[in-house]
Amino acid sequence: MPRNKISDIVEGRILQLLRWEYSQSLIVNILKRDGIHVSQPTVSNVKQKIGRQRNSESKIKIFRKKPSQTPSIIKKVIEKIDVKEPPTQRAIAKDLHISQSTVSNIIKNSGFTLRKKQKVQKLTSSNVMKRGQRSFKLYRRLARGRYKNFITTDETWFYLDETSGRRKVCYIKKTDPDYDRMIIQQNTSRPKGFMVWGGVSSQGKTTLRFVTPGTKVNSNYYINNVLKPFLTKDVPRLFRKGKKLKWIFHQDSAPSHTAKETIKFLEQNKIHYITPQEWMPASLDAAPMDYSIWGHLKQQLNKTRIDSIEELKKKILYEWRKMSQTYIDKVLASWPRRVLKIYQARGSHIEHRL
């Protein structure tokens, strides 16, 4: 509708709706419901020019929101997130009087990404120094596919109360008074469980060996109940003489592993192994059994409820047999890369770099 055909009544209605901060498209729809047909450009024309054309003393002022992503706001957001214990995006938005989406966009556009914190082993300054010094030599022994000659072994504990079949997350309405589902109650008594020894290689898995509850795993027990069966049964099966592969034994720095009697036994049997002086201390992040194999096995166990120790043993053996060599090969292939990252990090934590 041409501008000069607008009546004073229609013009007044438009001005009133503009003062109430209705959008131009909404004004068109409101007037249309009242039987008044005007176009959006007409409303815009009234908004921008009515004051000058009518010599009005009170022109319609157009207020635009101040851009929220100003250099000052961006700097404040970065200062809040670039700390050890950053607040939530919602808290940042509330504090700076901007939207949460603006905070999220600033973080994304500034090159930051949200990562879940991971539990890591505490490293002393001595640990860090030794890891930095020993990592590159170990990397060279593993690189170029040489990790395929290793049998890596370890022990871990399995507990009955860790196999409840319950997920560690839940969804609950704010109005729901039943908060019992939000907690996982732990048994305050000593948990029922046992220690298990096992190992993997590019040629397959060792037999799992269960430690009788209450048994003290010293060097004597380790030699007679673990190493001797391992050398007489597992090694010949995994690395047959016809393959001509010089296998290397890997274990961590547990007391029973580094005891003089254990080292003497390995030397007498001419076993090629990673010595305690070569292995990096406090390095679960560089031991395949720790950083992946045991965790995968426990994750599978937690999918179903297990009610007895005997049932737990059977389930462990079942899941161990079911674990594919393809998965093991993938875990072992990441071993050299992890050790190299420890060297590049000068012995510090690497979980956040993976």
From TrEMBL:
Family annotation (Gene3D superfamilies): Ribonuclease H-like superfamily/Ribonuclease H
InterPro entries associated with the record: RNaseH_sf
Taxonomy, superkingdom: Eukaryota
One Gene Ontology molecular-function label: nucleic acid binding
Protein name as it appears in the record: Transposase
UniProt source species: Rotaria sordida
Upper lineage: Eukaryota, Metazoa, Spiralia, Gnathifera, Rotifera
